[in-house]
Amino acid sequence: LVSGLTMFMAGLGANFEFDLKKIIALSTLSQLGLMMSILSMGFYKLAFFHLLTHALFKALLFMCAGSIIHNMKNSQDIRMMGSLNMSMPLTCSCFNIANLALCGMPFLAGFYSKDLILEMVMLSYVNSFSFFLFFFSTGLTVCYSFRLVYYSMTGEFNSSSLHPLNDKSMTMLFSIFFLMIMAIIGGSMLSWLMFLNPSMICLPFNMKILTLIVCLLGGSMGYLLTNVKLFFINKGLYYYNLVYFAGSMWFMPVLSTVGVINYPLKLGLYSFKSFDQGWSEFFGGQMLYNQLKNYSLYLQEF
After folding, report:
1. What DSSP element (H or E) covers 240?
2. Claim to verify: residue 150 and residue 279 sit in the same structural domain
3. What is the pLDDT of residue 281?
4. pLDDT of residue 60
5. pLDDT tens digits for 10-32?
6. Are residues 110 and 156 both part of a single domain?
7. Are residues 43 and 69 in the same domain?
8. What is the pLDDT of residue 234?
9. Residues in domain NADH dehydrogenase subunit 5 C-terminal (predicted)?
10. What is the pLDDT of residues 123-140, one digit of tens each?
11. Quick check: 222 and 143 in contact, CB under 8 A?
């Protein structure tokens, strides 16, 4: 249950983020939740298989994101990007392939593990809530992947026109192309190596295409969320607290990183104002110093 909620919360948070690296990091957290979920169901070999295939296309995704951020002069805001495929076609092509593999596009690396995981979930005796978490999180994955591609590849370039965007780093391109090939054929190769005796999974037609339907709905939702008009954006300000609640993983930073950092700092500031700059200091050391100084000045007049 905890791993399923992690998968769901990370996917939901990624749909409200505009930081490129944070979106990919939340995507990694969501996939880790998927691995832990399937591991808790007893499919340890399947969890390891998804770990290996996920490493291939997620490494490609991080390298492409690093190249884009470097060309954007360390800007990570996807709202500042746009039409990157015109100036960085090779990197953006590999970036899109990695995103499709993450979504489980048929015959890419992520398809072999994700489709098998969801089919095993349908065959297993899981409750309705866990079943909902698995498939809704899959839809969220497609949603934020489509949103990421929409912001970075379409529309106008919104950053400074002085930024020279190019694909001229051969070291990066060599590594990216190698990972792109592995993201395409790595899933099938690993499935042949790890599952020597393939098992036939028989499901009804409506359950067999359920994964495809969820992916199509997730992509449609990603398009609708990004292609909204200014009127709906302004109306969305009324629900800012709800958006912040969903985007911050249900106030998790307040309980973890932000709380650990902010609360001790506020306590230190309060102690500084109460003791070092408070009444005890005023009537203590500071008052004694001022009285002695006044007495010495008074004695110097005689």
Report:
1. helix 240-247
2. no
3. 64
4. 92
5. 888 888 888 888 899 889 999 99
6. yes
7. yes
8. 53
9. 144-301
10. 888 888 888 899 999 999
11. yes
Torsion region of 12: left, alpha or beta (phi above 0 gives left; psi -120 to 50 gives alpha): alpha
Range of the domain at 121: 2-250
d(CA 295, CA 49): 82
**Model pTM?**
0.80
- Whether residues 272 and 147 share a domain: the answer is no
Q: Which two tokens stand for residue 19?
A: 């930081």
Please write the tens of the pLDDT for every residue from 230-243: 445 555 566 667 77
Taking alpha carbons only, the member of 3, 109, 95, 136 closest to residue 55 is 109
296 with 225, same domain?
no
Output the DSSP codes for 138-151: HHHHHHHHHHHHHH
Euclidean distance between CA atoms 119 and 264, whole angstroms:
48
Beta bridge partners of 185: none
Tokens of 12: 């939901």
